[in-house]
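User: Here's a chain of 268 residues. Predict its fold as tokens.
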Amino acid sequence: MADFGLAGRSVFLTGAATGIGRATLDAFAAEGARVVAVDIRIDVLDEHVSSAGLDAVTTVHADLSTADGVASAIEQGRAALGTDAPDILVNNVGAGRLNTFETISDEDFHRTFELNFFSMVRIARAFVPAMYEAGKGAVVNVTSDLSRQAEDTIIDYAASKAAVASVAKSLARAYAPRVRVNNVAPGPIWTPFWSDENTGWLKDIEAAYDRKGQEAVQALIDDRGIPLGRMGEAAEVANAILFLSSDLAGYTTGSTLGVDGGTIRATF
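Assistant: Prediction complete.
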């Protein structure tokens, strides 16, 4: 495992119970960082932290789709860390459904933006100025390849992630040089976001391609023309997050790092 030099750093991580969030939690913990891990699925998060023996992790139950939930998470995070702001902020929480434009209601757009976009805005408003006053800080937002290359479904999700990326650029300018703000944009990563039998996208992919299981996944990979020819792994995204959080990325801010298997082929 790579050593990113993060031992002793404090981290506030959202969406930590499963998938990319869990892999990122494990990676920070392996580095020796102190982590406040936030998720609405606190039973899942607590079970993982306990079974993995992550002693330097404090779990926080919060619904980040509401202003009150964000405020509660921030208050608990500050109490756990004993400071106004962490050294590192990772805005990872997010959700979305594979719906076509005509089926997405105003309420759907609002619900998606409350969780994916406004949670990032509210948490950044609380922590980033305090990071600046402390003289240092790193922020990493998990966006999506869909924020850079829109598709004809999951439009509200893509729009919310594009908004996150835009605000991150503004924050990178506003709080430089003390605070670095970057994005990681995953492509298709095999996590419960895709595989969960109740909420994952796999069943939608199976319906779209009239195939089951791995055959449906491969059809998606082929259809999107992913050069690396496979789905990504959560740990591969976590490594990118840790890199941008570390001093190894000390001259990187306002950037978006794609971890997408080559799905995005723009020249900028």
